[in-house]
Amino acid sequence: MVFSLKGAAQAPASKDKVNLGFIGSGIRGKQLIDEFMAVPAARGVAVADLYDGCLERAKEQLGDKITTTKDYRRLLENKDVDAVVIATPDHLHERITLDALSAGKHVYVEKPMTWSIGEGPRMIAAAKASGKVLQVGSQAKTSALTAKAKELIASGVLGKVNMIRMGNHRNNAEGAWVYPIPPDASEKTIDWPRFLGKAKKRPFDAAQFFRWRCWWDYSAGVAGDLFVHQFTQMHEIMGTKAPKSAVSQGGIFRWKDGRTVPDIMNSLLEYPEGFLVDVYVTQVNSFAPRGILIMGDQGTMQVEGRKLTVIPEPKFAEAQLYGSLNFPKRLRDEYLAKYATEPKTTRPEPKEILVEAGQSHNWFFTDSILNNKPSRENAEEGHYAAAAAHMCNMAYRKGTRVTFDKAR
């Protein structure tokens, strides 16, 4: 059975524009420029990036009239900029976010919101004190698919949820962040000291600049890049905040290129509502399906792409054919005869629900600014999703079970 549900979001009531400054216009930053320029209320007016090539490319996207700089602080001084979109390496998120809020700018910051779990409370406090909109960039948080899944879970269609499995697999260089390095990459075209930020000082390394997700100094690894998407969506669907505890296993199995983060990682988390979450990534195999499997005692839901699939649990017959095999024939025949008129085991058909896309996550950011609405993914929600990923990393790196209270 297939149903089609249309997103019901309306256009912003205000006709005003939000002038955006983009801080970080690399791979994800380039995408964000395109995504925001598809929002009628958004206008790109300035870009900050540490590589000349990204600034050149940003002008190809937004036009030669935009202002560009390698120092994001110059962008924050620009009175034409209403809000900033931060898509830098993880280790720079906190400092830039705090500076932007202090400068009176609204903030859209890519996931993971934080590089370490301790940064979250500081960013939450700063956002509250500023009175500005801070929205974290995990797109599934506001999707129509997520909203429908949340509705179905609340209706009890799955019964008591006890286990959730989340996977995201890939098996190529791009999927392992081994991105191509531009031929003009050098200290002349890249502001290396500013890239290092609070990280340990080291000589210029173009691989670390363009493949920064491969090192703990700059990123939260596969958990920060990939787990967080699914944690954010799962938290919204299940109405939960943070896990109680996490354990992890993993390692570098294939991509022995100097990276410090694992290319395979499997974590198991316990949530206070009484369910376990098994989340895993491999960068050396692409077979396993992506998405979220939510398993309850009455059914299972698969959340993937723009489709929900609900698989009801079988209705098991009361008579136990296997369980009575140790009976002698006369007693077994007598036992089974008592259930002769009872229903046999039935297996209901899965139901597919197709959900049409509603407004984009980017749209909600401009709508919150123009119409004085709360953020649709606020700093607290961003912190909890990132914290779950950080707990997975801490458990992996320490080789022990990590609890939320002790991780903070």
Q: Which strand order does the major sheet show?
A: 1-15-14-13-12-8-11-10-9-16
CATH superfamily of the largest domain: Dihydrodipicolinate Reductase, domain 2
The low-pLDDT segments are: 1-14
Which architecture name of the largest domain does CATH use? Answer: 2-Layer Sandwich
Give an overview of the whole structure.
By secondary structure, this protein is α/β, with parallel strands linked by helices. It has two domains: 2-141 and 361-382, NAD(P)-binding Rossmann-like Domain (Rossmann fold), CATH 3.40.50.720; 145-313 and 348-359 and 385-407, Dihydrodipicolinate Reductase, domain 2 (2-Layer Sandwich). It has 13 helices and 16 strands. Helix 5 (119-130) packs antiparallel against helix 12, helix 6 (144-155) packs across helix 9 (221-238) and helix 9 (221-238) crosses helix 12. It starts with a strand and ends with a helix.
What is the compact description of this entry?
With 408 residues, the protein is an alpha/beta fold. It has helices at 27-37, 52-62, 72-76, 93-102, 119-130, 144-155, 192-196, 206-210, 221-238, 329-337, 361-370, 379-398, 404-407, and strands spanning 2-5, 18-23, 42-48, 67-69, 83-86, 106-110, 134-137, 161-169, 245-251, 264-271, 275-282, 291-296, 299-304, 307-312, 351-355, 402-403.
